[in-house]
């Protein structure tokens, strides 16, 4: 049985009855899975095959420098994390203008036309959150990869 199968069981309205302990175990299984697992991302993107291909490119890059990263999913947000999250992917836009949205954190102020939204630091933190629309695999270029790497390094400073 795959993670997608488990997800369907949990999300089905009138699906298979499971004792509470089993449901909690399945939810835990689905919540965190090592990056090598494909089922979770496939289920996350559903029938958005282009989005999944771009995500796979992102995942391969992250796995190159951070093989210990875990993929976590909460609702419509997928995160790459070690002790803390450092790259976040949200579902594709309904109008199809982006394959997915990528959010990263950084202490530095990034100025770029590619940043679609900047969330300033909240009190008690020093990090900005930057949102980048990924429209094609080629959007995951050296500039975006550099920002992801900086976000990873920043997350290590906060939770070392």
Model description:
- With 160 residues, the chain is of the alpha+beta class.
- The protein has helices at 3-11, 20-31, 39-45, 49-65, 142-158, and strands at 32-34, 70-74, 77-81, 85-90, 100-106, 115-119, 128-134.
- The longest helix has 17 residues, at 49-65.
Gyration radius, rounded:
17 Å
Q: If helices are DSSP runs of H or I spanning 4 or more residues, what is the number of helices?
A: 5
Low-confidence stretches: 12-18, 30-37
The separation of the N and C termini measures 36 Å
Sheet with the most strands, sense and barrel status: 7 strands, antiparallel
Q: What is the structural class?
A: alpha+beta
CATH topology of the largest domain: Aspartate Aminotransferase, domain 1
* Element order: H for helix, E for strand: HHEHHEEEEEEH
Order of strands, widest sheet:
1-2-3-4-5-7-6
Portion in helices: 25-40%
Outline, from the CA principal axes? globular
From the 3D coordinates, which CATH architecture of the largest domain would you assign?
Alpha-Beta Complex
Please give the CATH class of the largest domain: Alpha Beta
